Amino acid sequence: MSDYLSIANSPIMWLSCFPLVLLVLCQAVLYTRRAFATAVKMGISKSDCVKAFRAGMISAIGPSVAVFIMMVGLMSAVGSPVSWMRLSVMGAAAGEMINAGLGAQAVGSALGAADFGIRAYAAALWGMSLFSVAWIVVLVFIPQMNKVQVKVEKYDKNLMTLISTASMLGIMSYMTMENCLTGLPMIVACVSASLCMVGLSRTVKKLPWLREYHMGIAMIVGIVCAPVCAWLIGG
Amino acid sequence: MKSAVTESNFKGMSDDQFTREFGKPSIRIGSITLIIGFVLAFVPAFTLWLVYGVVPTPAEIAIIFTLVVSSGFAWMVVEPISYYGVLGAAGSYMAFLSGNISNMRLPCAMVAQEVTGVKPGTKEGELMATIGIAGSIVTNLIFVTLGAIGGTLLLGALPASVKDAFKYVPASIFAIMFTNFMLKRPDLGAFGVISALLILTVGSMFIPLPLQMLLNVVLVVAVGILIYRKKKKI
């Protein structure tokens, strides 16, 4: 079982995974340059753009650590290089496990099974790669959605802000409730993080520099309170 | 508060110019990178084939394709629609290439808009969200690369209680994002919670899982527009 891992972790596999990771970075650079140039033409200062970039970087630390922790499970199944590539793109570790598992299943094996060998590894790779057809769907949809957006903006300037805010509330209320239904510690995480956010949103009016960090602080409050609650009800 | 759009040199941009400067190029960059990404995603599978001679048979590949698409197709269709209103075109292309949309890209887009004091759903809002998402991609790449190189070692050094705590990260972030927008629109927030609860409890008996979130988004947007039109008439 372990010999497929020596291939899965070989330098040549690292090399084969590199291009896609590089592409993700290139795309981010291309969009950043476009957005900076457009913003400057609109009269937004470069320092504001840098502020936005830094805010994105800082706010991604918490979620990235969570991805990092989930990553190890995937690494033990399909090796480090492919996990590195898959979690740089699309990448929710859970989703990748499903697609890798479906691949293995098609050749009569399963992730973590004793007979998971090089053939199952190949099938898992195909399973994860074939999921990329999702991008073809995105390719077809987004330009259409963009046309609708342009029309909506022509019709009423305020409508797009409303749609954006309402979609966000629709997404986040669903996600929050979905988690809350899984048990008391999750509810505690949501409520404590949420209360902290209410408090912080008042504080940032006086201390604007805090704005870049307030989400991180509220997140820490959530992930500290929830295990405490789990510990209290468990023991 | 100091805001990017209240500064004296802010002059905005016409719709047509914005489409020319940012809208069209965004779609071009996105289409090209996604097509290249689609090809590059298969490089490891082909490497294994060409270098080590291991490849599933065509029949097996057909089965894998069917399994993967049938398990994911509904999500593939529903997600781009659900997230578009928040991400915009450029944000969508980036978020769908790099993943982790609800727990990483959306929060980072929001914080980027907040620190610069721009409104979501406006041109400047779209620009700042795009930049924020790009920033989050850099952080994500750093952590994933660290994880791939030294993950097992690093993770061994973390106490179990810390690892355990991080499973609450997504839920906390969803609640934070919700609260932040609820403070702006308490009415829509309250409606969202009630409809989400109904969908998740009663609705889940007959509404397929991938459609549930989209339905909630559609409902909240619809109610938002209804309220807006009513106010406009008065």
UniProtKB/TrEMBL annotation, chain A:
Tell whether Transmembrane helix is among the UniProt keywords: yes
Family annotation (InterPro entries): DUF5058 (IPR032479)
Keyword annotations? Membrane, Transmembrane, Transmembrane helix
- Give a Pfam family name: DUF5058
Q: Could you confirm whether the keyword Nucleotide-binding appears in this record?
A: no
Chain segments annotated as transmembrane: 12-31, 52-78, 120-142, 183-201, 213-233
What name appears for this protein in its UniProt entry?
DUF5058 family protein
Organism lineage reads as: Bacteria, Bacillati, Bacillota, Clostridia, Eubacteriales
Automatic annotation (TrEMBL), chain B:
Q: Which residues cross the membrane?
A: 29-52, 59-78, 84-106, 127-153, 165-183, 188-207, 213-229
Q: Which domain of life is it from?
A: Bacteria
Recorded source organism is: Anaerotruncus massiliensis (ex Liu et al. 2021)
Sorted keywords for this record are: Membrane, Transmembrane, Transmembrane helix
Protein name (Swiss-Prot/TrEMBL): Small-conductance mechanosensitive channel
Keyword check for Isomerase, yes or no. no
